[in-house]
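Quick start: read one record
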Amino acid sequence: MRFLSTIIIALRALRRNFMRSMLTVLGMIIGVGAVITVVAMTSGTKALVEAQIAGLGNNLITVSPGSYTSGGVRMGFSSASSLTVDDSDAIKREITGVTGVTTEVRDGQQVVAGGLNWYTAIYGESADYPAIRSWPLEQGEFFTDQDVRNTAKVCVIGQTIANQLFPGDDPVGQNLRIRNIPVRVIGLLAAKGINSDGRDQDNLIVVPYTTAMKRILKRDRISNILVQAASPEMVERVQAEIGDLLQQRREGRDPDYTVLNQEEIAKARNATNSGLSRLLLIIAGVSLVVGGIGIMNIMLVSVTERTREIGIRLAIGAHGADVLMQFLIEAIVLSVFGGGLGIICGFGASQFLAHYNGWTMVVPTFWVALAFLGSAGVGIIFGFFPAWKAAQLDPIDALRYE
């Protein structure tokens, strides 16, 4: 009963100065709300990147040009086109545990169909492309190995191309022109939508890589090699063997390629976001500390204002522990109340950003609980000194206080 009475007294004291109490918890509201919003943004971005990487296909290994030394400068990922069709053929021929390999050539071109034109991405690929990318067709069919060998003038298009060049019509069987080269549409890919970089994945045309290299783009180097391992357990082994094979083919030269699996690609894409998120969390943590300092300040003022009250309570039999508990509870109530409102504000800000900016926001339950417990901890840490100071007052001196 004594503990319950102490809580009631603490709540009454806070209610008497309601406006001051609300201004005091404002720092906690901002701090906790910022933590929830930042965590929701970070988790949402991570989930979006993971979904995008998963959408690339299962057990995917990407071989890209780059990581070579030129003029004493070590170049980075995709910094030069150093891969060849022979590299891709060697992987398909010599690496075991591989279920698919596609030789990839990429470029951007203006395409024309009828009286309409559209700028899009041109992908030269092998016949394994839809299986590797786990990308089904909505209509028609994908080109075959025979089409690749024959440098066939056929293509498969994304939904955006169908909407822009063939609005209201069935695109399969119709022709479009890429750099004045007529290409027949034989298939329509299922829609994939926007990825985490804001790129429209459906704005593409896929042609046999031989057609892209010899007829359209006139180049002898390729952009990437996509390899699908037979199982998740075989990814690391296949990745290592691909690296060894490519290095053997270069006869001791510095590596001019990069071999990454899906997990490594996801980590690379999340690295920048992680650094920014840590900075934002530090700023949010500073807001919590500022809120705690505000609570300490107002509790010290409260102890000074209520010195005679404390003296009366001590004079009629209250213990120092009772006074300490009363003021500590007041500090905890302020911080927990501010933390609760901060969580609500954080959820609200997350929903606002998700609705109006189209961001993916995910609020983990763990962080909600941690933010709430953290606000209670701030109340205990920053409220203890004022409560201890109140408990140490001498009853006689407190009664004489003006």
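The CA atoms of residues 23 and 294 lie 9 Å apart.
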